[in-house]
Structures are given as C-alpha cells and as structure tokens.
Amino acid sequence: MLTDDYVHPTPGFPAPVTSETISWPAGCCVCARPATRGVEAKAHDGETGTNAAVAAAGLALGSIAVRTGGGTTYTRRIPHCAEHDDGAKLEIESNNKPPLKIRFRSYAYQRRFLELNPKPAKAA
Hints:
Blueprint: E1 13-16, E2 37-45, H1 52-60, E3 64-68, E4 71-80, E5 88-92, E6 100-104, H2 107-116
C-alpha cells in the first residue's frame, strides 16, 4: 500500500487524457509547492496516417502537434517548481482508448489530477 505522499523515482502513475479540457492541480507535479514554470513533455505517434483519436487527444491537452512523414509529435508544458523538472511524461498507446496519457512521479498529484479530470461515463 502506497502512502499518500509517495513520489516514485520515475514517472509511473498513469492518468488518461479523456476530455478536451484539462484541469491541473495546484502546484508542482512532484512536490505540490507553487509551480513556477512548465516543463515540456513530448509524445510521438509513429503512424504516418491520420489518427483522429490521437489527434483529438493531443488537442485535448492543448498541445502543439507537429506532423511529419514519420508521424505526429505532441508537446505539452506540465507544471513544475524551480527544483523539479522530471515529474511527468506524456505517452501514446496507439491501441488504447484514450490513447494519450500522462504518467506522474507523485502518487498524490496523480490522484488529484484524476479527481479534477474524471473519465467520462460510458453509454449504457
């Protein structure tokens, strides 16, 4: 069982990006002290064709999407304090719905992120 303040050495706690609007918890994504900057995170979709789900998820992050012959790269700035720069990373899993996720080092930040950005209800 993890304690609420557990911080892993590398980003491992996943949070799917499921809507067009993201609400960030207050503070640094590692220590929760005031965030003073956004640290750039990138994810690359290696498929060269148009992947509407991935493109929509990239737009949901408010990220910059750069399409090349080798796929699409999504970039997003994630809140950090002056002391941290490795609190989160973006990932694309092509066969998953939603395909775009953020992995956090901080268990508490991941849980707050999930509370602010709940998964949409599935249609019955």
